[in-house]
Amino acid sequence: MVVLPQPARGAPRPGHMIVCGDDALAERLAAELASVYRERVTLVVPPGPRTESAARAGAAALLSRVQAVMNRSDGGLGRQAPRVLQAPELDAAALTEAGVREAAALALVFDDDEANIHAALAARRLNPRLRLVIRLYNRKLGQHLEELLDQAAALAVPGLDPEALDTSTTVLSDADTAAPALAATAVAGTSKVVQADGLLLRAVERTPPSPGRVADPGLCTLALLSSTANDPAGAEGSDASGREGPTLLPDDETVAAATGRGTVVLETVAHSGAASVPGRLAGRGLPLAQLFSRRLRWSLAGLLVSVLALAVATWLTSEQRHPLHAGYLTLLDLFAINDPALDEPTSRQVLQLLSGLAGLLFLPVLLAAALEAYGTFRTASALRRPPRGLSGHVVLLGLGKVGTRVLSRLTELGIPVVCVEEDPEARGIPVARRQRVPVVIGDVTERGVLEAAKVHRAHSLLALTSSDTTNLEAALSARSIKPDLRAALRLYDDEFATAVYRTLRAAHPRALTRSRSVSSLAAPAFAGAMMGRRILGAIPVERRVLLFAALEVAGHPQLAGRTVGESFRAGAWRVVALDTSSPDERLPDLAAPPRPGSADRSTGLVWDLHPGYVLRPEDRVVLAATRQGLAELLRRDPHPTPRRTDA
To answer: Is residue 193 a contact partner of residue 268, using CB atoms and an 8 Å limit?
Structure first.
């Protein structure tokens, strides 16, 4: 373990936070904990260059990046920078050196699931009471890992109340956390959704009402947009450019006094079940329209009508009184297995000849039907091409971790999607194949690839590749094809994102442009989980973030014993829903997805709360909060007593 050069401040005091990672999420998470929650943070990074001078230069650059993120955060100025350690391997010795025995929480956010799991098992042995936040892409494995580590923590300390663990282990995915916001950006432009455990929150931006009209307030007003939000030359990163920023969670007087400013309101809240995909081979049934073409279906229908007419004519002209016997004779004639009608009446002979002719026509139709059905089953597992006449769809670029999660969200919402991916073995290709989503294999920077995805008829473009330059080039190429195309780009650097946004808005004032960073959307959720509660989701408002969290009323004097109206604090938090389920039936984690094979469950959440309802300690509420407001609600004792742990 090597301590990188930084101001000397001794060993970390008990109750500090440890962040282990080497990418943008780790940097933003460390800055989030230090600037917003005012926690003492130790950042553990993998080894850099071998020479001491190069290591010092790398450490200075890392601290500079973290400090820059802290300065961009609200209230980040003047906060203490994290303590940075360098570990060649994240083993028990490295964790001990980082102070895991006295730490309050540990975040493992390496982009390697196996490394995070090994470190989590070692950390749980060193400190059973430690609050763990683990970054895992595999959701099913994450559920099993949560149960295993929580059980290990409960058994390590005899007589420990499981509820005292304070949500000991939380497994999160940055892709899952950011996917709802990215999908909503493509579907509704400035609309945002948070989805967890079948729970759907939808926040919608509304433009100022016309003179003489009153805007529908929705369930509650979440934010007032900046006064320059509708300016074509304005920047989405208005805070960074010195313009007036948005007002989060304003009171009613502020909303009434605001003129010319749009609002973000909570418009609909519903319980969404499993999405059904009708008319696709991915479902349980196989519709007839998918098996056979329209021309073949009409041919079969015509032949069946002809056979039925011949059977009726045979019944009327023959001496057979029963219609079933007449139908049987017609089928024998149809398949040419009946005796010739040599000594029978002329009508019978004519009907037999017509039946034989129908049989000759029927055989190739049956063969065509068999071939079409066989071809349909063979191509059921193949990638689809964009169908002719497709319009109003979303063009999704990149099927990596983030793109795959966004694709799942869009298909659950029933939004038509066309994917573009360069690597035919990408992570999201099997998902697209199962969902029967059209995919274009090719480099988006090459000519003709976006045209093959029908971008000229698309509703919006989502550029989610891991390269900023590729996303920008794809957006510029798409805008050259369709100038008014709605575009959302995944960009890491905030300053670069602001410059790109302002330039695209100035060049295409009638087209909606958004820039999103996965790490900036995911960092608040990871930081909140380290504070000991569960985040339902994050909604971006311009370049700020509004959090939705499930919180127990007990232990929070700002909520307990107060009415819903009295508990509201402008600019900090607002109670938006109440969990009416009893504590015995209540899920320990409202944000967790349903377990595989579990029955559908109603969350029992009440959204249209009366402002006079008095919050009781046994209640659990859903809060809309700013990061500073949630940090104030969850603030711990700055000088906690050391924990007694077993090695």
So the answer is: no
pLDDT tens per residue, range 29-79:
998 888 777 788 999 998 765 444 444 555 556 666 666 666 655 444 445
How many residues can be counted in the chain? 647
Q: Is the pLDDT of residue 193 over 60?
A: yes
The residues, ordered by sequence, that sit 6+ positions from 287 with a Cβ below 8 Å of its Cβ are: 279
- Averaged over 453-478, what is the pLDDT? 91
Sort strands 417-421 and 394-397 into parallel, antiparallel or unpaired.
Answer: parallel
For residue 316, what is the enclosing H or E element? helix 294-317
Q: 369: which DSSP letter? A: H
CB contact at 8 A, 602 and 628 = no
Alpha-carbon gap, residue 396 to 406, rounded angstroms: 9
H or E segment to which residue 175 belongs = helix 174-188
- φ and ψ of 517, to 5 deg: -120, 125
**Stated pTM of the model:** 0.65
Rg of the Cα atoms in the chain: 31
Distances (CA, A) of 244 to 222, 247, 571: 17, 9, 15
Distance CA 307, CA 250 (A): 74
Distinct helix (H) and strand (E) counts, the chain: 19, 23
Q: Rounded distance, CA 443 to CA 566, Å?
A: 56
CA–CA gap between residue 416 and residue 508 (Å, rounded): 25
* H-helix segments, 389-493: 401-412, 429-434, 449-452, 468-481
- Secondary structure (DSSP) of 230-292: T-TT--TTTTTTTS---EES--HHHHHH--S--EEEEEEEEE--PPP-TTSTTSSS--HHHHS
Percent of the chain scored above 70 by pLDDT?
71
Q: How far apart, in whole angstroms, are the C-alpha atoms of residue 217 and residue 436?
A: 39
> Cβ distance 41 to 63 under 8 Å?
no
Q: Which amino acid is it at 29? A: L
Q: Are 498 and 156 in contact (CB under 8 A)?
A: no
Distance (Å, whole) CA 221 – CA 227:
16
- Pair 45, 540: CB distance under 8 Å: no
Q: Which residue has the tokens 């290709």?
A: 429
DSSP-assigned letter for residue 482: -
Phi, psi of 540 (to 5 degrees): -75, 135
Cα–Cα distance for residue pair 119/115, rounded to 1 Å: 6
- Cα angle 513, 404, 537; round to 5: 70
Q: How far is CA 253 from the centre of its chain?
A: 35
Q: Which of 457, 419, 465 is nearest to 440 (CA)?
A: 419
* CA-based nearest residue to 562, from 574, 572, 571, 550: 574
The answer to whether the CB of 462 falls within 8 A of the CB of 397 is yes
Residues 135-184 have pLDDT tens digits of 998 888 988 898 888 888 878 766 655 455 555 788 888 888 788 778 77
Can you list the pairs that 347-356 forms with residues at least 24 positions away whose Cβ atoms lie under 8 Å? 347/317, 348/314, 348/317, 348/318, 351/310, 351/313, 351/314, 351/317, 354/310, 355/307, 355/310, 355/330
SS3 381: helix
The b/e string for 151-182 (b: 16+ C-beta within 10 A; e otherwise) is eebbeeeeeeeeeebebbbbbbbbbbbbbbbb
Looking at residue 484, its amino acid is D
For residue 335, the surrounding DSSP H or E stretch is: none
